[in-house]
Specification:
Largest sheet: 7 strands, mixed
CATH architecture of the largest domain: 3-Layer(aba) Sandwich
Number of helices: 16
Strand content: 15-25%
Number of strands: 19
CATH superfamily of the largest domain: Type I PLP-dependent aspartate aminotransferase-like (Major domain)
Helix content: 25-40%
Number of domains: 2
Oligomer: single chain
Shape: globular
Distance between the termini: 81 Å
Radius of gyration: 24 Å
CATH topology of the largest domain: Aspartate Aminotransferase, domain 2
Strand order of the largest sheet: 5-13-12-11-8-6-7
Length: 488
């Protein structure tokens, strides 16, 4: 057999792949596409109703989606593929304010040209999916950037990538179980949400999400911080002492059987509940003394608060052993300290993710790091204050929509919650049926919201603060006001 020699196309100091990425023709093509995205994006300037001429084709798309999914979509949302910051165009030609952003995925909104450029560059990769056996360096560069930020205020040292937040949590649980074998129990907070895999659905404190599933994961639940309950008990110290006693009771009842305590420092699905540093610290001190892994789930909180990580904001980085991030990072990751670095073979899988996720995710982290988002005068804090001002004005204008909620300790400011880019509002006494109706009416009026909580229920927003303007808030709240007015 004769071997045919391929012509030499690379110099000793470069590769053919590097030449492709540096090609003037490629760079010019990417520039042209990005410029066209910017031009079309700029055409969207505010909310608008759908195009009557597209009504029939849109209904056909919805029908196809419902048939293949097995049930109707929660919202009649199918995007056209273009948006402008917080605005998104749907395939019926309507334009809406996107204030939930894929439940927190798209912090920089729609049709962001910087991220579009990174995505286009990723299209030059020889494959779409990267994995544990073969990968380009983009996966490791993303992980290196993420770990570089995480270890500034913690002992976190390594990262393992995965394709979903639930899988990142599964990997975290495996790391904890291996380290503390044969311990088989976990501790979590009331109202927590961990994901939709079989195991994570069992740990999450929502019975609807585990209907029909075998319950083979051993979970003990602790109360999350509740300032109203603390007041009723006579103050913070008594509340903390009671929680510590309950935790010690679990540990005494099952000695040596708890592998980890799963901490949502700020609860997302549970109601945008904000943790208290003293309370959390007291519990972590017990975990440290009893050799129970401290695992932080920051899949929804990452990047949205007054610091990049919620543990930095609460000054709890010294306690974290294992951490999970996702959503805003595009690619998901499980981070851990040297002590929790698992044995070979525990974490593996065909896919770690797509090149586009790594490149875009890296740019997201870099922009968060360098963009002035954090601190008392950062973008996240200022935009949160702007949200609160608009919410307070709406409540003052329509007090009948905002009765006091006993479990929140009353009305007024207590009906406005969250921190940074995690915000919630509690109309109609937190009634589930009316909150769901409010979401639908607001959608029809031009703004996309979601709900959270387990009673009371809240209107939840995860706005794209990376591209949000002060002038956007009044326009968004005008849509919300019209929507709430339609709730019966």
């Amino acid at each position: 057999m004769t071997t045919v020699k391929q012509p030499m196309t690379a110099t000793p100091s470069t590769t053919t792949g590097a030449q492709l990425h540096a090609s003037p023709a490629v760079r010019a093509a990417i520039d042209a596409i990005v410029n066209e995205i910017a031009a079309k994006s700029a055409m969207l300037t505010g909310e608008r109703a759908g195009n009557p001429g597209l009504k029939e084709s849109y209904e056909a798309l919805m029908k196809r989606a419902s048939e293949v999914r097995g049930r109707g979509l929660l919202y009649p949302y199918i995007g056209s593929g273009v948006g402008n910051g917080a605005l998104v165009e749907l395939a019926d030609g309507s334009v809406k304010w996107d204030m939930i952003c894929g439940i927190g995925v798209n912090f920089f909104g729609h049709s962001d040209t910087d991220l579009a450029r990174a995505a286009l560059e990723s299209g030059l990769d020889d494959v779409v999916k990267h994995g544990n056996l073969s990968s380009n360096f983009g996966a490791f560069e993303f992980a290196q950037t993420l770990v570089g930020e995480a270890k500034k205020n913690s002992r976190l040292k390594y990262a393992y990538l995965s394709t979903s937040g639930a899988m990142a949590n599964e990997n975290a649980l495996k790391v904890c179980f291996q380290k503390h074998a044969p311990a088989s129990r976990v501790i979590a907070f009331n109202d927590c949400f961990m994901g939709r895999s079989t195991t994570m659905a069992q740990i999450g404190d929502t019975s609807d999400y585990r209907q029909g599933l075998p319950l083979n994961t051993l979970v003990d639940y602790m109360p999350f911080w509740d300032g109203v309950a603390a007041e009723r008990m006579g103050g913070k110290v008594r509340f903390i002492d009671a929680a510590v006693k309950q935790l010690e009771t679990f540990i005494h009842r099952y000695p040596g059987q708890h592998a980890c305590f799963i901490f949502e420092l700020i609860q997302g699905e549970g109601g945008f509940n904000i943790g208290d540093r003293d309370y959390l610290k007291a519990i972590m001190e017990v975990c440290r003394a009893k050799r129970i892994a401290v695992w932080f789930d920051e899949i929804q909180t990452f990047g949205r608060g007054e610091r990049m990580f919620a543990y930095e904001w609460l000054n709890l980085g010294e306690y974290v052993d294992v951490l999970c991030v996702g959503k805003m990072t595009q690619a998901c990751a499980t981070l851990y300290t040297e002590e929790y670095n698992p044995k070979a073979g525990l974490l593996s899988g065909t896919f770690t993710g797509e090149g586009v996720s790594f490149r875009v995710g890296q740019r997201v982290i870099e922009r968060l790091r360098d963009g002035g988002y954090y601190g008392d005068q950062g973008i996240c804090a200022k935009q949160h204050a702007a949200f609160r001002a608009q919410a307070a004005a709406l409540m003052a204008k329509h007090p009948e929509w905002f009765p006091a909620v006993e479990s929140l300790g009353g009305g007024g400011e207590r009906l406005i919650g969250g921190t940074g880019g995690m915000v919630r509002l509690t109309p109609f006494g937190g009634d589930k049926k009316k909150i769901n109706e409010a979401c639908k009416m607001c959608f029809e009026e031009g703004v996309i919201l979601f709900y959270c909580g387990h009673g009371p229920y809240h209107l939840r927003m995860l706005p794209p603060l990376g591209v949000f303007k002060d002038s956007d808030w009044p326009r968004v709240f005008a849509c919300i006001e019209r929507g709430l007015a339609r709730v019966k």
